[in-house]
Write a structure and sequence with these properties.
Elements: E1 4-11, E2 16-25, E3 28-38, H1 45-63, E4 67-71, H2 79-98, E5 103-106, H3 108-115, H4 123-133, H5 142-170, H6 179-193
Parallel strand pairs: 1-4, 4-5
Antiparallel strand pairs: 1-2, 2-3
Helix pairs in contact: 1-2, 3-5, 4-5
């Protein structure tokens, strides 16, 4: 079994899809890379979807993640925007699925609560906390920070789900997983509150 896991977080959008990679070794998160795949608004939607898909395929080929996580879709007041986001998510999700990678989905509020401590944090707060949790990582922009937040959330909850499923079958008792990450986030929140 590998001693570390490489996680790819994705924040899908038709115009800008953020991506972020972290390595998880025990309770330690190590930043790897982050960026954004852009599609041109002047292109037909079919070409934009191909651009997003190819961009994520290239990232997977270059960085070889073990797992992927993405933010769940929320329903927008504008049905056209919701449809376009759904199309972008489909194109983005297809890349890890075709590569045989497991894909987890997390609600936006769960991601924000994991990283910032509150479920209705704004993009600036998410960006600031991602910088604190992953010191030394230069963030491409707010979209890549959101993608890294998804990866951080998966680092926190993904192993718990895998461990629970494994031990339901074996009959062994529960164990605390992710305590070190909780402590790192709590310490970052405390430092921020003291400023």
């Amino acid at each position: 079994m590998k001693s570390s896991r490489r996680l790819l977080g994705l924040d899908a959008g038709l115009r800008h899809t953020g991506w972020g990679l972290i390595d998880v070794t025990g309770n330690h998160l190590v930043p790897v890379a982050n960026g954004v795949v852009h599609s041109e608004a002047t292109q037909p939607i079919s070409e934009r979807l191909v651009t997003l898909h190819r961009g994520i395929v290239e990232i997977i080929a270059q960085y070889r993640p073990d797992e992927t996580a993405i933010e769940e879709t929320f329903v927008n007041k504008n049905p056209e925007s919701t449809l376009k986001l759904g199309l972008a998510r489909g194109a983005v999700l297809l890349a890890p699925a075709l590569a045989g990678l497991p894909v987890a989905e997390y609600a936006p509020n769960r991601i924000k609560k994991t990283v910032v401590g509150v479920g209705h944090a704004d993009k600036r707060q998410v960006q600031m906390m991602v910088s604190r949790i992953l010191p030394g990582m230069t963030l491409e922009n707010a979209d890549s920070a959101d993608a890294l937040a998804v990866a951080i959330c998966h680092a926190h909850f993904g192993p718990v789900q895998a461990f629970a499923a494994e031990h339901r079958q074996s009959g062994s008792g529960p164990r605390s997983v992710g305590t070190g990450l909780q402590q790192a986030i709590a310490a970052a929140l405390a430092r921020e509150a003291g400023r």
